[in-house]
Amino acid sequence: GILTTLSQSNGKYKYDYATVPFLAEVFKLIISSVFLWRECKKLPPPKMTTDWKTVRLFPIPSVIYLIHNNVQFATLMYVDTSTYQIMGNLKIVTTGILFRLFLKKKLSNLQWMAIILLAVGTTMSQVKGCGEASCDSLFSAPIQGYMLGILSACLSALAGVYTEFLMKQNNDSLYWQNVQLYTFGAIFNMARLVVDDFRAGYEKGPWWQRLFNGYSITTWMVVLNLGSTGLLVSWLMKYADNIVKVYSTSMAMLLTMVLSVFLFNFKPTLQ
C-alpha cells in the first residue's frame, strides 16, 4: 500500500497501473520456472499432475487475483495507506467464514472472538470522532473508497481460500503449481491490457509499446513487492494455511501507520 501510494503523482498514476500486475505475474512465473527446472534435475523428479481435470481449476484464482489487484490500485486513489491496511484486515473475517464453508475447517472460540473484535475495531477506526470539525460525513474517507476496500478484502479472502484448496488437493511440486497459476495469471492480465487498448481505440498505441511508460524506481519496487509477496503467499498456502497468512498480514498494520506518519504526514486518531 505504501509503495503504491508513493508511486502516485498528485493522487494519480503516471503509468498504466494495469501493467503492474502483469509484470508481477511474469516475474513470479520466471522465478517459479527456474526453481522447477532445478527441481527437475534432481532425483526423484517432482510430481507434476498434467490431466485437464486438475489444470482447468487454476484459471479461477487467476481471474480473482486479476480483479483484486486492479481494485487495490483503484482503492488507494480514495483512501490513505493506513486506512487501506486497516480495511484489508476485514479479509480475516471473510477468510474465517470461507474457511468454515468451503474447507470445512473449524476455528476455535478464541479465533472467532478475535475475528469479531477485529471487525468491530476496523469499523470503529473509520468513524469520525465527535470532536472533529466536519460532521458532514460519518466516515473519514469517500464512500467509494470503503466500498472498493471491502470488495478488495472479500476478493483477497476468496482467492486465498480457493488457492489453498488447489495447493493442498495433491502432492504436486509447489513450483509446478505456481507455474500453472502464474501462467494463467499472465495470460489474463495481458488480455486485460488488450481489452483496454480496444476500448480506447488504440489511441496510445498497442500496450507493449507503452508498457514501461511513466515507470519510476518506486513503480518497479511495487512490481517486485507484489511479485515477491505472491511467491511467499503461495508457500504459506502449501505448507501453512490462510489464517496464518491473514494474521501475519495484519501485523503490518502498525508498521504501515508508523511509516505513513513520516511519509504522508498521516495523523492517527484515538480510534
UniProtKB/TrEMBL annotation:
Entry superkingdom:
Eukaryota
Membrane topology label? Multi-pass membrane protein
* InterPro entries to which the protein is assigned, alphabetical: EmrE-like, Nuc_sug_transpt
Q: Where in the cell is it found?
A: Membrane
What SUPFAM superfamilies is this protein classified in? Multidrug resistance efflux transporter EmrE
Q: Main subcellular localization, coarse class?
A: membrane
> Which cellular components does GO assign to this protein?
Golgi membrane
For this chain, one GO molecular function annotation is: pyrimidine nucleotide-sugar transmembrane transporter activity
The answer, when asked if Transmembrane is one of the entry's keywords, is yes
- Alphabetically list the UniProt keywords: Membrane, Transmembrane, Transmembrane helix
Transmembrane stretches, start-end: 17-37, 57-78, 84-103, 110-127, 147-167, 179-195, 215-237, 244-266
Family from the record: Belongs to the nucleotide-sugar transporter family. CMP-Sialate:CMP antiporter (TC 2.A.7.12) subfamily.
Q: What is this protein called?
A: CMP-sialic acid transporter 1
Native organism is Gossypium armourianum
